Each structure stands twice: as structure tokens, then as C-alpha cells.
């Protein structure tokens, strides 16, 4: 089937495009750069790979139909920030869309020397206090919202490897808090409760004994999974809910009531074949106000320092009248779940079943049997995983096994019989095996409806061979033209292993150019304030840095001294960074304008060490260095 | 002045381009993708920013002059690999040119979890044995050559922070050797002696006491710098040469005799102002066969286990008849040096002087006073740093202070008066403050002459704001059309801090798709060969991995056991990777097809830990996990 918005009569020679009658003209919704003149409308089903950026060599002045201009000429800015997770690289990456250029890397769960992350006392203590691990496994970067729209405050991301959640400060594009979530292993999903990001949820995938201290080792039935509600301001775990089965992905509804989580192991199994044995598993709907009420009423057990509320099926909180978790039977080993922009539906994909399940959020509150809230179950293709939205009534779902993205009509799926393929509008091949996909502002109440990125796990031979470890392939697809259909625009190789992303309009984030010293505790060391304080084998060196010098041309300490260096970059000019790198001492402090960092180390090897600036800061950058002189102990 | 190749008479409506009469037609040298029809030849001096990839909206079928097609449509491959250093990120990055897409990251001097680098026993021992540092500062990636052309064997890169040199195996695109260079601090330059990469040279920038063990701390005159000659096969430091002054960049000549190194501190100073006080410093020319002869004759002192030859000006090796190091006076604080493709000249840039010095390599061997080998000294602009070549007689030099790349005619510079600006052909603005630049195969005897990358240290506001730490900007410039002039094609944001790059034709590197188990010592564990061997508190777990399982569904050990896990990915299919991630144990082994890795750890916390695969390998990837059960000690 096709819905009316995909089949308007249209003059093919017309340069303006109208997506239909019931929505604002599409032309107002496409990227601000010139959208090229579309000629004859192309068939919608095929991939129009290979057409982007090619210069027109036709003589008629009309480019081929379906071509899209995704170029961002030198010096021009992208329309969107995309925040991609970095998987087991432990980082977040910031891309520009539509250029797909990587603008920045933000280390989160591991040390990173170019940014000095984990090299100064503050960030190394943060990493130590959250477990002391050297890496993490980031999956789901979500950006904070207010009133269901991006507010530019924070991004959050999980660590599946070590059960943690991190917060990234979008004023400075740096990780500023990490919480080690008690009672949870394999924290997989990460997402916000809307409209105002009241909580960030960590979703536990791996069922383990609770507490996991050596008890119940071989009794899988006693293992548990939890969701954890984290306060985004304090990064404190406010409460957890313990459930039957396990969970992986989640999404919050937009009116503040529901949090949804899929799970593939309702079997409580410990092997792959047993985990996949039943034909349905659960989509769990957490009734947040009911949980808060239970916590308020003391209906919890404190485990690992956190109130844990019983959300199993046998739980009789509220006398069973208003279960705090509703278990919805959906097919099979559901993976992705996301709430539609209008907050009407939660859509969970089958993974091992070709269908997605459409749950009516309003009905969910009213029905006795939560399965009665399933109002649609379209058949989409093999291996449906994750779903994004364009704000025009379409859903876009990745088909992992088919290596496709399928576009389908949500209302048509509600109207159609279960397992009907009629709601499918079109499919496009992607290369290859997509996991997540993300459309511009898909997680908000008002998606932009222009760009979509398919995060494909395999690239095979799409790029120059770089050895046995291939890049993944994040493909940019234009979805702004329902008439021409989805258009593959760019292949983007990406380092292992982005799982998910959020795309945010450029004007909704306002990063700082220089640091505000008021934001941090370190002592600002201004020009003329450099100082060395010695006391009992402790040496505190305070020095400024600027083009092209550090506050001291030499610093002399004794072998065995514990040395603290507090260093400020006193520059006021944006983009003039310095660092303090100390050879053979494993130290590199990154110092952006007006930033102060502090590092403590033991000077244990006599000798001369040239402390230097590792950011190329001026023509005399190489000469910007000072001697650390470590005198031998007597 | 302009040389004849830049001013041929040409019909501006002609679509074929001829660069002149003395070289093969330029059209044969441009990228294999369609080069768009150039209309009227544009003026050469301006930056033609903003024209790339834009679809033609003119009705005459002719695009604007100077447009270049640098797009690589989805699924098509780039023409070149570019190996960029990652500065104090400690890594190497592989880009495709002309797409400027990052194809891969290769961790070198620091652990990196996505690749499991530094997480298995072999690579973590390599990092430990080369100093145990967690980071490095990579500057100069150079690719091995045979007969003055890339041979696809290795790349090499320095660590300025800790005085090391690393080798990257281009069969697997992974670091396979690191040597800690004795007697050297601030190893800056890294480059190969041609034609056949007999040595890789590490160039010491920071003058320090030798040995640096607490002696001579405050006697800078006694400090020394060295160059180190490293055997590329064994990565053994064969010999070093100790010099007056310091050094930073270097380049080897193509007939195997000379190695050139610049230096900015002939003053032997310790402060920036003193280092910059004299109007000339030295370009040093190391006579490699003469040094080898001195080593052979025992004319060295062994320091730090390495033969160190005296290359100071007072050295009387060979009775002064044939000095092993020639000190050439060039202006001022010279930074970059590179040898022309025809091996006729070494060109050193002034950094604090607008001129470059052109040294005739043949004359250098003949003259008594090495300054007599300076045959040209063109005035290029403010802050000349590094020079690349197109193989058509032009040099391209970055002007750090002017934020430009200047194209100049080498022979014209030899013919002109010193400090003449006449050899300058044109300048193009770059954004901003370029350090290195690199042209395709510029380091070989036969550069490709099409693409050039300017590695600009600052991007200021060229990209969406990502906070106080901005990306750098690696700009792609088309240099294949002498008539149209240099054309700025792409801005590429890059993470801190690429210093230098090598660009290699795609067909000269042939990476493997899967591992050859013969290449490594680890024991291959095939299907059916999983095994657990226990002895005296040591547990050796051997297991295969494949879609979607590990060799064991559970592994039980005792608290306190030392556990070694040897894990093989038995897949034969390219691009199907697995990993072994162990929560709360800080372990992640990357396992490409047919790869075996081994990790040893102590199981010190009782509990259940779900070992899982962190590479999304199949629809049942999430279910690919096994329990590590750590039983409490009695």
C-alpha cells in the first residue's frame, strides 16, 4: 500500500516539491543549502546510489532525478550535530550532517592523551572512582531535552562492559560525570524520560545474582536484571526496578509516564539456543509515577545502596491493581523500541521475527491485559531491529538480515491486518547489516524529516582494504522527498563500533569557545602568579602557559618528591591550546584557553626532562618548552 | 615569474588539458574518475573554495572553471591511502584520498580497546617493554620503499614524548614493533633512507645529558642530541650520531648516501628567546656510508648499548677529510627538510625567515665548504615550514604565519638571485596556520602530482563549534592543473593532532582479509579443541569463537586463580570479527577472522561475569555470551 502523502500528482519539471496536502510543503523542510532541481520523479523502490556530488555532465541543464546535494563546501557549516557512540572504543564521536565529517571525539570511559583525559587529577579520579577500568562499551548516546526538544545541556551514554552511565557536558564537549550503577551488569540501553529529562535510564542486559558477590552462582533462575533511574543533575541512581527476563534497549514516552524496554531472554536461559527458544518475549512498560509512589511508600529493598522495587510479574505492589511493570508479549527476542514523535505509539521490532509490534500508549493505561494495547503488527522483513521517524507519519526500520532500511506507514500498520506487508512504502539496500539507524531529531516531538543515517555493522569491500578489521559503514540517506523515495547519498567508514546516534539541529547546542574558570575548582594561575611551594617532600608548581612559554623555564625537584603541577592556559583567543607533556613521565595535560588542569606524580628518575607543548600553538611552538630537572637523592 | 609550464596557450573551451610540452599530458595524470570539463581558465591566485561537489545549475552544460570532482560515490574506492599521524593521540590514521574519509585508526603508543590493542598479552608486553607508557606523540608516518617506490610492507612513526619508534605492519594494519631509542629525548623526525629503506632514522630534538641519569643537570653545553639509525627488519638501533645543536625534521636522499636534519637550537640554549637568537642554524647532512665506515672501524663509544659516533663539528674522524656530518648554515631556525623526487636537491625551510634553502646534493659531496652547496634561496612568505612535490618541477611549501601554501618553481629558484620572489608561481589561502603538507607520493621518485593535503593546525570557525578544543583542518587541494592553479576542494576536520602524512597509491598496498595463523605464536584453537587446563592455581582456558558462540558456555574458576584465556576466531569470512569482553575485568580481545589472542588475569572477585562479543557479528550477536563463574575461595 501507499498512503496519500507518497502519491501526489506532481509536475515533474517543477523545481519545487510538495510532499502532499496534509503537511507543510516539503520544500520548507529540506536542508537550507540549495536542493537541486529534481527532474522526473524517480521510482521509489531502488537505491539511487552513486549520484551525489557528481557534477552534472548532462547538457540539458537538468540533473538526474533524485540527486541530492549533501556537500558542505569548504568553510560552510553542517546543519546538524550527530552524536555517535563509539562502541568498545569507549568514546562518543561528533559528526556534522550532512557532510558526515567527524568534528570531534569525546573520550568517555577510557583515558585519551590528545585531550589529556584521564591524565589530570580530576578526570583520572573520576575514572578511578567509577571503577578504575581503562575502557567501556558505549551504545546509546542520548541528548537531554526540555519540553520534548533538545536543550543543549548534556549527552548521556552507557557502558555495557562495566555497568556505568556517563554524562557529557555540551558546553565544553567533555565527560563530566560517570556513575557506576549498582546491581547491574551489561548496562545496555540508555535513554531519557521526557518531556524534560527527569531521569536517564540505564537498562541491564545481563542477568546476574543480586548482589553479585559469589552467591547463587549456578542458579540462573535467581539472577536478575534491573533498570536504573538516574538523576541527570546529580548522576545519582535514584531507584531501580528488578524484573523477570532481561532487557536491552529502551525508550521513554514523551508525557513522563512510561519507560519501555525490550528483552530477549524471558526464558531465563544461559545459552544462545535456550535464549531464543520461545516465540515471544516481553516488551516491558514501566509505569514511572507508580514506581515513584512505591519508592515514596517504602515499598523497596535497599541493595547496593539503592532502593530496588520489585517489578517481577509476581509483584503485588498496589495489590496488583496498578502493576508497576506491564509485560507485553511481542515476537520474538525484540530488540529496538522507540516512541513515535506524537507519543501515540511505542514500536518494538522482532529481531527474530519479521514483524514489529505497535503499542498504543494511551490504551496501555486503560486495558487490563497489556497485550490488548498492541494495535499493529506489520511484516517488515528479516531481522527488524531499530526504528526512526520523519515526523510525516513514516517509520524507518533497519532490517539486519536483509541489509535494508524499510520505510513504512504507521497509521497504515494500525489499520492493516497483523503480519500484513501493505504498510511498507519502500525499501532501500544498505551496505551491510544495519544495526541502529537514526533520523534527524527522531527522538523529539518534531523530527526534521530530511536526513537518516543507517549504522551498518559490516562494510565488506565498500572501502579500500585496511586489513582484517574493516571499518563499519554509516550511510547517509536522504528521506526528505517522499516522491523520489529514499536516496543513498554517502558511504562513511567508521571506526569500531558505533551503535546508535542522536542528530541535533546545529542551533540547539551552544558550546563555549573558552573555559569559564568559575566552572571548575582548580586554581587559576595567571601571568605573574607562577609559584613553587615546597613542603615535606611535596612540591606544588603553579604556572601559567601562553604563546610561547610556561611560567617557569625550569623546575628543579628532588628524586622521590611528590610533585603537583597546576597549569593554566591564560590565552583568551579561541582555538589556541597548549598542553604540558612530560617525557618519560606519562603525562599530558590538555589546556584550552582559560583552562586549568592539575597533575600529581612522583619524580622518581633523576635527569633532565623537557616539558613541552604538544598543541602546535605558534611559529615558536617547538621552542615552548621548559626543563624539569630531577636531582638525584643524596 | 612564471615558468613555461604554467602559461601555455590553451583554448579555454577545450575539455582536455595539457600542462605543457615537456611532460606527459596532464590529462593522463589526473584522478581516474571523470575530471569535469574545465571552462575558461580561472585566475590562479585565488582560492576557489566552495565549488566542489556542487551540482551544476548552469544551463550551458559547462561548470565553473576550476571545479574538481573529488567525490567518491557510495561503493567506489579512493585512489590513495593517506597515513596521517595522530600527534599526542598516539595513533596513526588511514584516510582515503580524495574522499578524505577516515578508513581506519591504528593505535600505536597507547592501549585502544576497540582493537583490543594493549589488552592481549602480546601487545601489552610490547607496550610494557618499550617503556610502559600509556601514550605517545606521533609526528611523521613514513611508508617503506623499495627502489624509491612504496612497497607496502611497513609504516613507521616516531614518539616524541618518550623517544621511541614504532613499526606498523601493512599486511594487517597493526603495530608490530616498538623500540625505545637509547640516548634520545624528544624523538621528532622519522624517515627512511632510500632507495630501499635500509634504515629508519629517529631524530632527537631535545638536548639532554648523555646518559640522562642525573649527571650534568645544569650544564646545557654538555647536553647532546643524536640521530638513531634503526634497522627496519629487526627494529634494532644500529648506531647513533651525536651532534652539535639540536634537530627536528629529517629526510633521506634517494641514492642511499645522505640523511638531512634541520635544527633550531645551534645556540645550545634552554629558553625560547635564546634558541631564536642567531640568524642562521644548521641543516646537517649525515654521510651515511662514512658513518657506517666509522662504526666498522670501531670509531665510536658505546652508550646505552648503542655505538655512538661523534658527529660534532670538532670531530676528527677521517682526519677531518671527509666529515661524517656537514653543517650547512641556513636561515633561521629551519624546520622542514625534504629531498626532491629527482634527488637533485634538499630543500630546507626557514621557519623564522621567509626563505627556503636549496642544497645541491651532488655538489655537497664535492665542495670543501658545505655552504657552497646552497644553490638557491627563494623568498616564499612568512613562516615557511614544509615542502612537497608534484613531480613537474614545482615545490609546495606551507607558510605557517601567512596561512598559505606557496607553489614555486625549483629550477627558477636555482636560477634566481637569493631572496627573490620570482620563483613563486602562486599562493593559496588555507585555513589556518598549516604545519606539514603532503602531496601524493611526494616522498618517492615519482610523485603523482594530483592531490595535496595541507595539515592546518587551527580551524577557528570553519566547522560547527564543538567547544574550546577545536578540530584541526586537513584541507584537500587539487594541484593537477597548472593552468587553473591550485584549487581548494575540501575542508576536513581532524582530531588532534596530525603532524604529517604519507599518501600512497591504492594498488601499492595489499592488506590481508584474514589472519594467517603462521604469522603469530599464539596457539590456534579450532572448533572441537576448546579445553581447560588447571594446575597449581593457574587455569588455561583455550576456546574458539564463531557465530554465535564461544567454545565454552561457562568457565568456572576459583577466586585468586591466575587465568589465561587463549581465544581463536575460527571464521573464514572476511569482516566477521568477534571479541572477548569480560565485564569488570578490564578485558577486551579483538578477534578478526583466523586470529588468536591471549590474555592473562587474576580472578579476584567472586561472582558471575558474562563474557560477551563486542563486535556486532550476527542477528544473534547479543546472545553470544558465556559465563565466567568465579567461586569464592574457601
Automatic annotation (TrEMBL), chains A, B:
User: Can you cite an annotated GO cellular component?
Assistant: periplasmic space
The entry lists its GO molecular-function terms as: calcium ion binding; copper ion binding; cytochrome-c oxidase activity; nitrous-oxide reductase activity
Enzyme nomenclature, EC number: 1.7.2.4
Cited InterPro entries: CcO_II-like_C (IPR002429), Cupredoxin (IPR008972), EfeO_Cupredoxin (IPR028096), N2O_reductase_N (IPR011045), NO_Rdtase (IPR023644), Nos_propeller (IPR041114), NOS_propeller_2 (IPR041142), NosZ/Cyto_c_oxidase_sub2 (IPR051403)
- Does the keyword field hold Membrane? no
* Reactions accelerated catalytically: N2 + 2 Fe(III)-[cytochrome c] + H2O = nitrous oxide + 2 Fe(II)-[cytochrome c] + 2 H(+)
Q: Where is the composition biased (Polar residues)?
A: 1-12
- Which Gene3D superfamilies has this protein been placed in? Cupredoxins - blue copper proteins, YVTN repeat-like/Quinoprotein amine dehydrogenase
Self-association and partners:
Homodimer.
Family the entry assigns = Belongs to the NosZ family. In the C-terminal section; belongs to the cytochrome c oxidase subunit 2 family.
What protein name applies here?
Answer: Nitrous-oxide reductase
Amino acid at each position: 500500500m501507499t498512503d496519500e502523502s507518497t502519491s501526489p500528482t506532481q509536475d515533474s519539471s517543477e523545481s519545487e516539491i510538495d510532499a502532499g496536502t496534509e503537511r507543510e510543503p516539503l520544500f520548507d523542510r529540506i536542508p537550507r543549502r540549495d536542493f537541486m532541481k529534481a527532474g522526473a520523479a524517480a521510482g521509489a523502490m531502488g537505491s539511487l546510489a552513486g549520484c551525489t556530488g557528481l557534477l552534472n555532465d548532462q547538457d540539458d541543464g537538468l540533473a538526474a532525478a533524485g540527486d541530492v546535494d549533501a556537500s558542505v563546501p569548504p568553510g560552510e557549516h553542517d546543519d546538524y550535530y550527530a552524536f555517535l557512540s563509539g562502541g568498545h572504543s569507549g568514546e562518543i564521536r561528533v559528526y556534522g550532517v550532512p557532510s558526515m565529517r567527524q568534528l570531534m571525539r569525546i573520550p568517555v570511559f577510557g583515558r585519551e592523551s590528545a585531550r589529556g583525559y584521564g591524565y589530570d587529577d580530576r578526570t583520572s579520579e573520576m575514572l578511578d572512582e567509577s571503577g578504575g577500568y581503562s575502557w567501556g562499551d558505549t551504545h546509546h548516546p542520548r541528548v537531554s531535552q526540555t519540553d520534548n526538544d533538545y536543550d543543549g545541556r548534556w549527552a548521556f551514554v552507557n557502558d555495557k562492559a562495566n555497568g556505568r552511565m556517563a554524562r557529557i557536558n555540551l558546553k565544553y564537549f567533555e565527560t563530566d560525570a560517570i556513575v557506576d550503577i549498582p546491581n547491574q551488569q551489561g548496562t545496555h540501553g540508555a535513554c531519557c524520560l521526557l518531556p524534560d529529562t527527569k531521569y536517564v535510564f540505564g537498562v541491564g542486559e545481563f542477568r546476574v545474582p543480586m548482589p553479585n558477590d559469589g552467591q547463587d552462582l549456578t542458579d540462573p533462575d535467581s539472577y536478575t536484571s534491573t533498570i536504573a533511574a538516574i538523576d541527570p543533575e546529580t548522576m545519582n541512581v535514584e531507584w531501580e526496578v528488578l524484573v523477570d527476563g532481561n532487557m536491552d534497549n529502551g525508550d521513554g514516552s514523551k508525557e513522563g509516564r512510561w519507560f519501555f524496554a525490550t528483552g530477549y531472554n524471558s526464558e531465563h536461559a544461559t545459552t544462545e539456543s535456550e535464549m531464543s527458544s520461545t516465540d515471544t518475549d516481553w516488551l516491558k512498560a514501566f509505569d514511572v509515577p507508580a514506581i515513584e509512589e512505591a519508592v515514596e511508600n517504602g515499598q523497596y529493598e535497599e541493595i547496593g545502596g539503592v532502593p530496588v522495587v520489585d517489578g517481577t510479574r509476581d509483584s503485588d505492589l498496589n495489590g496488583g491493581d496498578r502493576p508497576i511493570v506491564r509485560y507485553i508479549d511481542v515476537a520474538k527476542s525484540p530488540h529496538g523500541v522507540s516512541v513515535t514523535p506524537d507519543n501515540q505509539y511505542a514500536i518494538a521490532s522482532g529481531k527474530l521475527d519479521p514483524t514489529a509490534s505497535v503499542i498504543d500508549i494511551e490504551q496501555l493505561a486503560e486495558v487490563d491485559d497489556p497485550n490488548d494495547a498492541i494495535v499493529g503488527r506489520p511484516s517488515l522483513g528479516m531481522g527488524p531491529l531499530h526504528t526512526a521517524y520523519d515526523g510525516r507519519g513514516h517509520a524507518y526500520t533497519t532490517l539486519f538480515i536483509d541489509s535494508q532500511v524499510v520505510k513504512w506507514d504507521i497509521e497504515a500498520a494500525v489499520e492493516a491486518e497483523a503480519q500484513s506487508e501493505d504498510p511498507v512504502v519502500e525499501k532501500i539496500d544498505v551496505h551491510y547489516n544495519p544495526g541502529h539507524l537514526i533520523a534527524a531529531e527522531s527522538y523529539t516531538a518534531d523530527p526534521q524529516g530530511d536526513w537518516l543515517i543507517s549504522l551498518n555493522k559490516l562494510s565488506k569491500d565498500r572501502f579500500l582494504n585496511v586489513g582484517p578489521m574493516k571499518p563499519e559503514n554509516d550511510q547517509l540517506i536522504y528521506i526528505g522527498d517522499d516522491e523520489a523515495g529514499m536516496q543513498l547519498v554517502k558511504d562513511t567508514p567508521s571506526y569500531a563500533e558505533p551503535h546508535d546516534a542522536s542528530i541535533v539541529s546545529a542551533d540547539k547546542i551552544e558550546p563555549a569557545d573558552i573555559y569559564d574558570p568559575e566552572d571548575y575548582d582548580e586554581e587559576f594561575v595567571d601571568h605573574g602568579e607562577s609559584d613553587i611551594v615546597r613542603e615535606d617532600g611535596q612540591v606544588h608548581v603553579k604556572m601559567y602557559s601562553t604563546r610561547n612559554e610556561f611560567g617557569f623555564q625550569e623546575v628543579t625537584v628532588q628524586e622521590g618528591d611528590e610533585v603537583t603541577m597546576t597549569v593554566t592556559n591564560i590565552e583568551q583567543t579561541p582555538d589556541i591550546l597548549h598542553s604540558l607533556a612530560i617525557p618519560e613521565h606519562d603525562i599530558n595535560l590538555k589546556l584550552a584557553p582559560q583552562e586549568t588542569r592539575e597533575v600529581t606524580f612522583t619524580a622518581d628518575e633523576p635527569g633532565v626532562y623537557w616539558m613541552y607543548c604538544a598543541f602546535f600553538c605558534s611559529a615558536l611552538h617547538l621552542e615552548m618548552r621548559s626543563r624539569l630537572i630531577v636531582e638525584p637523592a643524596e
